[in-house]
């Protein structure tokens, strides 16, 4: 959601003793304070919120009472740093319960969380600021921020709020035959007056509960995503980047920005050992420099796990194409195999990785390299042979955004979600696999790098 957030002010307060929150969430940037949900009255500062903490990435639930006194404060011992996974979060709240620890319950992927570093439960029968309205009983309800700050960067889906009933996680999810916690797309619940159900199977803020409690987009652009709890798409791994210089991520870790000192921009959260995969990337801007030879976005794969000490292109097992069309295998120059004349801001670079035959090739704006310095092939026909992943350090290949060579850049990848940052593809190409939305035609037999693609 990046700088995007939603808001709503309810006409009247609902049940502030008993309620349920349920949502699926996939994190992007880590180690910054981010608020998936909050309610805040800017005039008084009274609030209630859910927050991933800066630095530690633990998760908290916080609320004051109607006088502004903190009455609920739970902070998990558990950290939430998996940027590849969707978490199912359920907060079950009922302050009428006699036992303090039963008044607020947290479930993560169907399992109740019981270990907290801070554990302050509300007094019995107290009214919380959750489910209030503006003024002394509440404030503006935000999804993805708190008072226009602390924006959540990542993805959210199937957001439910229940007014007046405390439900556990089993109402919103269930375990499949393989023991995996999965979503119930249409749970059998009663929403109550202020209850709502938004972001169901898309980016619609129209309430699906039947209550008409629609939200509005208060800031930014709310994009749709093919990424879902049932089909997780690759993004950049925020925990695997060079310790030299700075690489930052946004738009759910699909946009990478590096400074001039950065030697490695990132690698995909998903790795591959077999199969055929396709991806696209768009350079948004590049820093200092008079040529494109420092531009290395979208042009390669890596099989090195730890890039904090091993930075491409000098590490063997990395295959990249830089901006002047030169392909490198580690530090070995394989020659100018692609064109450089059209590599420019907002052009779409393409990559096709064939791990059934251990080979890779590159394209630009719908044409593929001919192997002798131009992009003029309608389909991949000139290949660079790569090492069998089983014999590499990691045993996998990962898509990589390579080092800037003294020229920082910003670039947005399309791993199949149909967007470069917040800009949708102009006109989707054909994709016989039915997995992912891309700007250009996906070569026959290729698919997006996602959990569905890996299991094709």
Annotation keywords:
456 residues, mainly beta, Jelly Rolls, 2 domains, nine-stranded antiparallel β-sheet, eight-stranded antiparallel β-sheet, 1% helix
Describe the structure in your own words.
By secondary structure, this protein is an all-beta fold. The chain has two domains: 5-219, Sandwich (Jelly Rolls); 247-454, SPRY domain (Jelly Rolls). Helix content is 1%, strand content 36%. The protein has one helix spanning 451-454, and strands spanning 5-8, 18-27, 34-40, 47-52, 58-64, 70-79, 87-94, 104-108, 111-113, 116-120, 140-143, 154-163, 173-175, 181-183, 196-198, 216-219, 247-250, 255-258, 264-267, 276-286, 300-302, 319-321, 326-329, 332-336, 348-354, 359-364, 367-369, 375-377, 384-385, 398-402, 409-414, 419-420, 423-424. Strands 17, 18, 20, 25, 26, 27, 28, 29 and 31 form a nine-stranded antiparallel beta sheet that branches. The protein is elongated, with a radius of gyration of 24 Å.
Helix proportion range: under 10%
CATH fold field value of the largest domain:
Jelly Rolls
Radius of gyration from the alpha-carbon trace, in angstroms: 24 Å
Number of domains: 2
Q: Output the number of helix runs.
A: 1
Tell me the distance between the termini.
29 Å
CATH structural architecture of the largest domain: Sandwich
Q: What's the number of extended β-strand segments?
A: 33
Instruction: Indicate the low-confidence ranges by residue numbers.
Output: none
């Amino acid at each position: 959601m990046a700088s995007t957030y939603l808001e709503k002010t309810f006409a009247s307060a609902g049940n502030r003793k008993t309620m349920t929150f349920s949502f699926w969430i996939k994190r992007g940037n880590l180690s910054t304070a981010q608020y998936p949900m909050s309610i805040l009255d800017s005039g008084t500062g009274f609030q209630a919120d859910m927050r991933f903490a800066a630095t530690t990435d633990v998760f908290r639930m916080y609320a004051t009472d109607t006088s502004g006194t903190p009455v609920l404060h739970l902070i998990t011992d558990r950290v939430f740093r998996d940027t590849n996974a969707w978490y199912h979060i359920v907060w079950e709240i009922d302050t009428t319960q006699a036992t303090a620890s039963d008044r607020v319950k947290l479930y993560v992927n169907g399992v109740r969380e019981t270990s907290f570093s801070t554990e302050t439960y509300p007094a019995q029968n107290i009214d919380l600021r959750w489910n209030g309205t503006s003024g002394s009983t509440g404030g503006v309800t935000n999804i993805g921020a708190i008072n226009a700050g602390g924006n959540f960067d990542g993805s959210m889906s199937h957001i439910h709020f229940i007014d007046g009933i405390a439900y556990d996680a089993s109402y919103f999810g269930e375990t499949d035959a393989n023991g995996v916690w999965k979503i119930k797309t249409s749970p059998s619940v009663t929403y109550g007056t202020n209850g709502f159900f938004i972001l169901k199977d898309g980016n619609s803020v129209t309430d699906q509960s039947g209550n008409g409690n629609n939200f509005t987009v208060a800031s930014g652009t709310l994009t749709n995503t093919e990424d879902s709890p049932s089909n997780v798409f690759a993004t950049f791994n925020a925990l695997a980047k060079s310790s030299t210089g700075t690489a930052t991520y946004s738009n759910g870790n699909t946009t990478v920005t590096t400074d001039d000192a950065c030697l490695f921009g990132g690698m995909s959260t998903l790795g591959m050992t077999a199969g055929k995969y396709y991806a696209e990337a768009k350079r948004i801007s590049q820093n200092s420099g008079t040529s494109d030879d420092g531009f290395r976005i979208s042009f390669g794969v890596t099989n090195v796990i730890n890039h904090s000490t091993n930075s491409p292109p000098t590490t063997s097992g990395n295959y990249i194409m830089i901006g002047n069309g030169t392909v490198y295998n580690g530090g070995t120059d394989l020659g100018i195999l692609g064109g450089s004349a059209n590599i420019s801001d907002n052009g779409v670079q393409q990559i096709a990785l064939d791990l059934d035959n251990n080979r890779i090739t590159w394209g630009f704006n719908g044409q593929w390299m001919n192997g002798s310095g131009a992009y003029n092939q309608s389909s991949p026909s000139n290949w660079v042979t790569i090492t069998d992943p089983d014999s590499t350090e990691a045993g996998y290949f990962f898509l990589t955004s390579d080092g800037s060579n003294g020229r920082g850049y910003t670039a947005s990848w399309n791993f199949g979600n149909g967007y470069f940052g917040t800009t949708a593809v102009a006109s989707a190409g054909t994709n016989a696999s039915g997995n992912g939305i891309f700007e250009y035609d996906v070569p026959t037999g290729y698919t997006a790098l996602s959990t569905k693609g890996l299991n094709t």
